[in-house]
Design a protein that fits this description.
Layout: H1 5-40, E1 51-58, E2 65-72, E3 78-86, H2 93-107, H3 115-125, E4 134-142, E5 147-153, E6 158-165, E7 168-169, E8 173-174, H4 177-180, E9 183-184, E10 188-194, H5 200-207, H6 215-231, E11 239-247
Antiparallel strand pairs: 1-11, 2-3, 3-4, 4-5, 5-9, 6-7, 6-8, 6-10, 10-11
Amino acid sequence: MGLNPQELEQRLKALESRLLNLQKELSVTEKIAKQIQNLVTKNRFPQIQGIEFLSRYIPGEQNRAEGFDFFLNTKQTNLWFFYFNVESYGLSSTLFQAYLLLQGRAFFDQIENTPESVLKELTQELDLQNDTKAKIFIANIHLSTLKWNEATLGESPTLFMRNAELNHWGPPKKIENSLKKNLQLQPATRLFFLNRSLNESLLKKIETGPLKESFKDDFNDILFHLEKNEKASNAPHDICFWGLDINSKKIHLA
């Protein structure tokens, strides 16, 4: 039995009212997500004499939640880093949980805590073992030995490293995945992180580009190649890029 015009008009108005209410709820949810993200994501780096930090985040066209941060443990012996990416809108509850869990592990870490053990606990608590839409990267540097250790869920990010050779800096080189675990950093090292893998053409441009003595110029030169590559893409990726300039002679442990 069909609806008469008056009944149809009433139903359409009811549906329109429900749609407006839903839009208002989504708007409020988005504002809350942004407030949470501003509260839990620091806008400054740990103050460590002997280590300089630079970072840049450039959003792409993909719909996902993404975040990263650095943590210095209470004894100031380990610098922790984490990166998290989930395919969802705004700051997902999963990202928020992961942030708080990792922050707790980093600040109150025990001697036996490693990136592998923290990642295992996170994936178990957040039920991410079989979630292919989530990426987690956790790493730490022991500040007295400059030993680097990491653990990854999902696609492995790209790491570049430049070492001081005599009186100049050597060329940036990609660190192969097989060498990332228990990597020994040199006393004078520049380490660069990118949140995804690179094609061979872009990798070659970065590794054979003109060498920069200034850490800031070095960072911006690599970032320039990354941005140029994404602008030429039909579906630009997010760029999460950071760098560390480490001078072990200036590091003083508490």
